[in-house]
Amino acid sequence: MLAFLFLVFAPLAASAARYWWLADGRGNWQTADRSSAGLLQPAAAHPDGPGPNSNTFVQAALDSVPELRAVLPPTAIGKDFPYADKWFGVSPSGTGVYASLAGFVGLKIGWIEGLEINFFGAVVGFDIRRPALKLPGLGRLGMPAGGA
Question: What are the start-end ranges of the H helices in 35-93?
Fold first, then answer.
């Protein structure tokens, strides 16, 4: 048990010591957000409403490699946030279109995505290709998502 505690707390203590006493030059800890990867705007750019979260970051990373044509599941809250300030465009799979009102309300229609209505980050919709309902918190109810 002592070894476990040492392995957990020693790195934390070393990091805190380096930050506080050795004047770590990385800046304020609040600047270490996902925008540092260059994929998203800083969180401070969205003070009034929905903004980027971890699912937005994953979708931005997937969008940076369009050959993947990857789509996050309907349970990924925030996946449809317009991180590039584009309120309409081609869907992540490249097989449809989307429209979003600053991340508050959105609509996506595509062969891979099906029909999705986005409301404050939650998705409700219908998968056309493999019939299933998409419900927030529950995911898909119907045929399994399976392969492409």
Answer: 54-63
pLDDT, mean of residues 83-111? 85
Q: Which amino acid belongs to residue 58?
A: V
Q: Would you say the pTM of this structure is higher than 0.85?
A: no
115 neighbors 131 (Cβ within 8 angstroms): no
Closest CA to 135 of 124, 120, 144: 124
Looking at residue 127, its amino acid is D
Q: What is the mean pLDDT of the chain?
A: 76
- The answer to whether 65 and 59 are in contact (CB under 8 A) is no
Beta bridge partners of 111: none
12: which DSSP letter? H
CA-CA distance, 69 to 77, in Å (whole number)? 19
